[in-house]
Design brief:
By secondary structure, the protein is of the alpha+beta class. It folds into two domains: 137 residues, no CATH class; 60 residues. It contains nine helices and six strands. Strands 1, 2, 3, 4, 5 and 6 form a six-stranded antiparallel beta sheet that branches. A hairpin with a 4-residue loop joins strand 4 and strand 5.
Length: 214
């Protein structure tokens, strides 16, 4: 349950800004946050949490397996703290609202003094804070294979899917698009773990339907 001292928890927009002030670009900052959520370095609580089994909880800690499969690219999540995902092992859809991040944990992974907030920070030398932006482009891309329990290249084929969506190159149906993405992943990232086409379909289903309805 969320601690009573609200100053110990910050919203997603402030969390993102805090990480970006350490010298990371926006997308890299999001990946960095997700990595630390998946490895339980950062704790999160939600005002409301629910899954397909109708297990609703209020003021609850968000489980790690939610973040391992989560899509954190949407703007709404970083403004309102509302995220959703499909957990692969159980094929269960989860939704959380009003997510808050532990300020203590954020400062810990950034090697900052405890309880420092965005407005207090002035980074004169971002290089003294670990940043995956110091890696080569290939290493940055490889790091998008979410850590902790593997998500089998989700961040990689998600980015490819969105690139294809913007260029209006999507296949005519969901199954064909999933097959294309799996084939692309195997060709371009042979060292990655590979999901099934069913998993890819579950991950891109909602976004794919929205495009086709437009």
């Amino acid at each position: 349950m969320m601690e009573k001292n609200n100053s110990d928890w910050i919203g997603p927009s402030e969390t993102l800004a805090l990480v970006m002030k350490s010298g990371r670009a926006r997308d890299v900052a999001k990946t960095f946050i997700l990595q630390n959520l998946c490895t339980e370095e950062i704790t999160t609580n939600a005002r409301w949490l629910c899954n397909d089994d109708m297990k609703e909880m209020n003021d609850a800690q968000v489980p790690t397996h939610f973040w391992v499969a989560a899509d954190i690219s949407g703007q709404r999540g970083w403004v309102h703290g509302d995220f959703q995902t499909v957990v692969e092992e159980t094929n269960t859809k989860w939704e959380v609202r009003g997510v808050k991040f532990s300020l203590r944990d954020i400062n810990s992974v950034l090697n900052l003094p405890n309880n420092k907030r965005t407005s207090e920070l002035k980074f004169t030398n971002p290089q003294n804070v670990f940043s995956i932006t110091n890696q080569s482009p290939q290493n940055v891309q490889d790091s998008m294979n979410d850590p902790g329990r593997p998500t089998k290249g989700y961040a990689l084929y998600r980015e490819k899917f969105r690139e294809r969506k913007e260029k209006e190159l999507l296949e005519i149906n969901l199954a064909s698009e999933a097959e294309y993405l799996l084939s692309w992943l195997k060709k371009e990232h042979p060292s990655s773990e590979f999901p099934t086409t069913k998993t890819i379909k579950n991950r891109i289903r909602d976004e794919f339907k929205q495009v086709k309805k437009a």
